[in-house]
Design brief:
This protein is of the alpha+beta class. The chain has 9 helices and 10 strands. β3, α1 and β4 (about 100-105) form a beta-alpha-beta unit. α1 (about 80-90) packs parallel to α2 and α5 packs across α7 (about 230-235).
């Protein structure tokens, strides 16, 4: 019998969304002696993503994967979900019991933190299962060990991310119900080659901005920043330039940019209905692209 989870029978599975992570800006401000890059990024989350279910009926440590991109995900111990499960069990002195079912709907190697979001969702489910607060300081070192994006995904709230991803400043939600459109050309983009292709001076380190309380000011702030990995990603995968061109040509788009190290690009609209209409337009003209629309998560 498992530990109690409020509102969930102990012998029943329960689930959590692993939302897409979007870097509204990503500036590379330096490189440390150990080779890791210093970043400044504003991270938000989509209202949709992968779905992770913990199921006590599965064998201990099992991971079953289905969904659109299931074939691209390893189901062995190299998967971040399995590593998160084992790492958390070790840290908190718990047995590895039950397993996870992953519905993989986010593209892989796409700059939207799919694997990190999945690992963070697994840790959150285990926190609920074991009735351990998500604020327990033992979670953060494990998150950092699993990957640079896992801490911000574990928090699941808008945040400014600096350092190599370990420094997080939680932010208020966007001041308007913006619509969000994500587009990926179904071309995996590995992060290390993108950083290697980056050239020229680093972006200057900036102090924390004053966060506007109105939508116009918020958009002006975003437009004054950039994604320093966009140009190197395009040099390796020119199709990304075509995605950005298609997004920027859409009616009523407020901002279009690449997320993370690519190749997913995003567009912001005044409301989710406009994002959905734009998604229909893009799907008709580019049926081979992965296209998803919704809203920014609070």
């Amino acid at each position: 019998m498992t530990a109690g989870v409020p509102g969930v029978a102990p012998d029943q599975p329960f689930s959590r969304l692993a939302p897409a992570k979007v870097n509204l800006w990503l500036e590379v401000t330096g490189r440390r002696p150990d080779g890791y890059h210093e970043l400044d990024s504003l991270v938000v989350f989509a209202s949709w993503g992968d779905r992770l279910v913990w199921d006590p009926a599965l064998p201990a440590g099992a991971l079953l994967i289905d969904g659109t991109f299931a074939a691209l995900i390893p189901a062995n111990g190299n998967n971040l979900i399995a590593r998160a499960h084992e790492g958390a069990a070790e840290i908190f002195g718990r047995p590895v019991e039950g397993g996870f079912r992953l519905s993989k709907e986010l593209p892989v190697a796409a700059g939207i933190g799919g694997g990190s979001a999945d690992a963070a969702a697994a840790l959150r489910l285990l926190a609920d299962l074991w009735e351990i607060s998500a604020d327990d300081p033992r979670w953060l070192p494990l998150c950092r060990r699993l990957g640079a994006d896992v801490p911000v995904c574990f928090g699941g709230k808008p945040a400014r991310m600096t350092g190599v991803g370990e420094k997080l400043e939680l932010l208020p939600a966007a001041p308007a119900p913006f619509g969000l459109l994500l587009v990926n050309p179904r071309v995996p983009v590995e992060t290390p080659p993108v950083f290697k292709a980056r050239s020229g001076p680093f972006s200057p380190a900036r102090p924390a901005p004053v966060w506007p309380e109105d939508a116009a000011g918020w958009l002006d702030l975003l437009k004054g920043r950039r994604n320093d990995l966009e140009a190197p990603a395009i040099s390796l995968h020119p199709v990304i330039a075509g995605v950005l061109e298609g997004l920027r040509a859409l009616p009523q788009v407020l901002l279009a940019r690449m997320s993370g190290s690519g190749g997913t690009c995003f567009a912001l609209f005044a409301d989710p209905a406009l994002a959905s209409a734009a998604a229909s337009q893009l799907t008709a003209s580019h049926p081979h692209w992965w296209v998803a629309a919704g809203a920014l998560q609070d």
